[in-house]
Amino acid sequence: MHRNGALRRLILALLLTSALQIVRAQDAQPLSSPLFTGAPHDIPYQDYDLEHLRLALRVELDAGRIYGVATYRIRHVEDSLPAIVLRARDIEVFSVRAGTLDGEKFASTYTFEGADSLVVSLDSLSAVREPIEVQVTYAATPASGMYIHRPATSRDAALVWTDAAPESQQFWLPLPFSPSDLLTSEVLISVPPDMEALSNGQLTETMPTEDGLVLFHYVQDQQHAPYAIGLVVGRFFKYEQSVRLYNGFTVPFAQWVPEERTDEVARTFQETGSILNFLSARFGTVYPWPRYTQVLANDLLIDQFDFTGFTLFNDRFLLDERAALDESPVLALATALAHQWVGAMLPPDFWSESWMASGLSTYIGLLYVREREGDEAFYAGLSRLADAYFAEAAQYRRPLVWNEWRHPVDMLDAHSRAKAAWIFHAIHQQLGDDAFWGLLEAFRRARAFTPVNSDQLKQSLSTWSKTSYDRFFDQWVYSAGHPELNVSYRYDAVAESLYVDLRQVQEGYLVPGVFDLNLDFEIHSLGSSQRFSYALRKNAARVAFPLSLAPRFVLVDPDHRYLMKTRVDQNLTAWVAQLRYAPNVLDRLAAVEALGAWKNDPALGIGLQSVVQTQPPETVYTAVVSLLTTLPPSESTDRLLLNAFEGGSPRIQRIVLEGLSGRDQTADVTIMALETAETAMSYVLQASAVSVLARVKAPSAEGIVRSALITPSHRERVRLAGLGAIPIVGISTREGVQLATSYTAAHHPTELRLGALRLLTYYAGMGNKSALSALDGLTEDTSPLVRRAAILASGAVRQDTDPDVPIETLLSLPYLRQTVRQFD
Questions:
Q1: Taking the alpha carbons of 139, 142, 143, 144 in that order, is the dihedral positive or negative?
Q2: Which pLDDT value is given to residue 31?
Q3: Strands of the sheet with 517-525, listed across from one edge
Q4: Per-residue model confidence as pLDDT tens digits over 588-620
Q5: Among candidates 440, 396, 428, 432, which has minimal Cα distance to 414?
Q6: What is the chain's mean pLDDT, rounded?
Q7: Are 459 and 478 in contact (CB under 8 A)?
Q8: Considering only 35-44, 301-310, 753-762, 767-776, which range has the smallest mean pLDDT?
């Protein structure tokens, strides 16, 4: 479906201008980031409407090459259409033919302009008003976008999968420049007879081909974004299921996994049917695609890719019994399924609007977690999102609607996921539960299977709530940053009043000097609490509340409507009381963070002991134990830590073990760590014990490390701990290099190969030529993550890379995943 880009560009310009009018004039400049160094991007104007794509593909695994015939049904939207332009990079075109739908197709001239523009001349068809077809026959050896994995050993399986990153399809499929030109599609994939293929829509037929292959024909007859076209080819075990929804409809779904792992599949994906039912009921419409498939593949650039009708997960997503002690798949499953409604059915009309699908699917995933696991899990999830955003905000702050980037994948950051989720949480808090879901249902009815943008959401929200959301969007969506609120208070016993001083202190490029905040205050006194409200519309204010008793502690925004940094000036006693009695997990976690300022005060240990005795929620208890490990050693503190270790979860046990290893208790820690390394069911805890034994230089450390190196585990956590400990347990440099090199072999999982590569980088930095040679050999590796890591590591050792980026950052998995997807 075609959209005129000129009007959309004008609206975006006006919105950004409006946002800038509320931003305080500041000298601050944007921080160094790809999101501030790229040129502004406008919605590409497109003078034709792509209605349907029929793609026939053949994959040649040995050559890592594909051959395709793409047939486009297009319609003019202008009086004359002399040519069409498709985005295509490093694609070899053999022929182009064009003609009317039922007429003969004639050869057309074509040229490549620039690095990524295929221009097809339409000649005599330029003035035809009826739909026409353009057929492009091509081949490609994709450098990105599609990944063809050939077996490293006879035991490994071949696999082909596509990336869902913005604009990545240009390496294997010519498509329009506009991501908002929605279309229907069909994909025909010819693969070896022992393999299967998955793509969008419904599988309509499977048949043998004349050259001994098998053809899979998928049809997606519901409009979708062009970048949502994807495919997976491999050998799979399939687990077919279905769920009967609240309204009697049945939705089929399945898991495709590379090898038979019945128990792990059942354990990992058991919530899928429940999530489908939950979301269908809340959105007021059943799952919008013919079926849903969860397919697993190895060496993914990120943990999951979302397409219409299926989600591609990293194969490390499967949990065995021990891995289930360390992590839960529920949020990821719910977020992926929510994307089938809010991202696939309501796709953004341009990359500048990425925040809507990313943030809303994440938030709805958390709402499902709340439904299944309660408020503590929900608010703990919000806390993790806030931490992710604040960590990124320390590097840069940008408006959520933003059109400057080097590559649109830069927009898939913590702003789009975490801050955006909090914005939908604020809207949810303002509207209430029924009205929030009613809004989403109304927005879905009005906009389903059309591209959407922030202005449309704002208009729907304002209409639905009968309240203007202009200023809210100006401050939270079209401007950068978040409120930073300093709060102090004083109680006057004579006047029986509490005086609260408020000051907004946020600053930065495009950050509003004043956020409009409708603040609630929950004031806890002995045995009671009272609520007051105040609308803060300036950067500083003093407000008085009638109060008959002195407060024990004061909560600002107790319902946590806003994503903001709040600094409350309270004494240690007040913070301990807040930690003990605040009703919301987030307020109790804030108290733990604030109490870190009193680490050397003996009263803190006494206060924390009283908190532990109240048996706080697991999330709070974990934070308290973490704080206890930072306190000066004492008999009472150590006893609390040991008690926590004895009865705590694996996460708490890990915190205690690592915390005690930094104290002067080597013998006791060694005993604890040895027993843990040998008996722990949790992989994370076992890996931690291996690292601790190496760090405290336990007599048995080398043997434990060697044992760890041959211990497979989920996400290779145990062997990674062993690799990291090699330099500190007495293993020689020569053997260390040999071990690291052996674990970079292609048949090992990617996580393990990257850990070994980091160890090689350590030795190469010490001048070891064998390690540097091994790094150089990995710069041509078939795995994009390993290849990128080797290039960065080799450059860092030779001092050819940016010295401002630490080597540990260069080789971290998040950095690698981000940079690998930023193709030029």
A1: positive
A2: 59
A3: 528-536, 517-525, 553-556
A4: 999 999 999 999 999 999 999 999 988 899 999
A5: 396
A6: 90
A7: no
A8: 35-44
Cβ atoms < 10 Å from Cβ of 212: 9
**CA of residue 361 relative to chain centroid, distance:** 11
Q: Are 703 and 674 in contact (CB under 8 A)?
A: no
Tokens of 223: 């409009």
The amino acid sitting at 562 is Y
Q: What gap in Å lies between CA 245 and CA 279, rounded to an integer?
A: 10
Residues 392 and 661: their CA atoms lie apart, in Å, by 30
Say what the pLDDT of residue 292 is. 97
State the Cα–Cα distance between residues 655 and 685, nearest whole angstrom: 9
Q: Which of 338, 335, 256 is nearest to 294 (CA)?
A: 256
pLDDT of residue 102 exceeding 70: yes
Q: Which of 519, 566, 557 shows the shortest CA–CA distance to 538?
A: 519
Instruction: Determine the Cα–Cα distance for residues 339 and 287; give it in Å rounded to an integer.
Output: 11
404, β-bridge pairs: 40
The C-alpha angle with vertex 107 and arms to 101 and 109, in degrees rounded to 5, equals 115
Mean pLDDT of 627-646: 90
Give the rounded percent of residues in the chain with a pLDDT score beyond 70. Answer: 94
pLDDT digits (tens, 9 = 90+) for 383-418: 999 999 999 999 899 999 999 988 888 899 999 999
Report CA-CA distances (Å) from 213 to 137, 243, 252, 590.
19, 34, 28, 60
Residue 83: name the closest of 43, 32, 118, 38 by CA. 118
Contacts 24+ apart (CB under 8 A), 323-329: 323/683, 323/713, 323/714, 323/715, 324/267, 325/650, 325/681, 325/682, 325/683, 326/650, 326/651, 326/682, 326/683, 326/684, 326/714, 329/268, 329/269, 329/271
The tokens for 24 are 């305080």
C-alpha count within 13 angstroms, C-beta hemisphere, residue 11:
17
As a whole number of angstroms, the distance between CA 145 and CA 94 comes to 21
CA 259 to chain centre: 26
State the Cα–Cα distance between residues 291 and 106, nearest whole angstrom. 38
CB 450 within 8 A of CB 428: no
What is residue 649's predicted lDDT score, i.e. its pLDDT?
92
- In this structure, are residues 706 and 722 in contact, taking their beta carbons and an 8 Å threshold? yes
CA atoms in the 13 A half-sphere facing the CB of 720: 20
Quick count: other Cβ atoms within 10 Å of Cβ 634? 11
DSSP state for residue 649 in the 8-state scheme: -
How far, CA to CA in Å, does 71 sit from each of 51, 93, 185, 679? 11, 13, 10, 60
Q: Are 595 and 588 in contact (CB under 8 A)?
A: no
Between CA 451 and CA 162 the distance in angstroms is 22
Q: Tokens 């080789």 map to which residue? A: 811
Answer positive or negative: Cα dihedral of 402, 405, 410, 413: negative
Q: What span, in angstroms and rounded, lies between the C-alpha atoms of 92 and 110?
A: 12
Task: Concatenate the DSSP letters of all residues of 207-263 into one string.
Answer: EE-TTS-EEEEEEEEEEE-GGG--EEEE--EEEEEEEE-TTS-EEEEEEEESS--HH
Q: Spell out a b/e string for 802-821, using b for 16 or more CB atoms within 10 Å of the CB, else e.
A: eeeeebeebbeeebbbbbbb
Instruction: List, for residues 186-237, the tens digit of each pLDDT value.
Output: 999 999 999 999 999 999 999 999 999 999 999 999 999 999 999 999 999 9
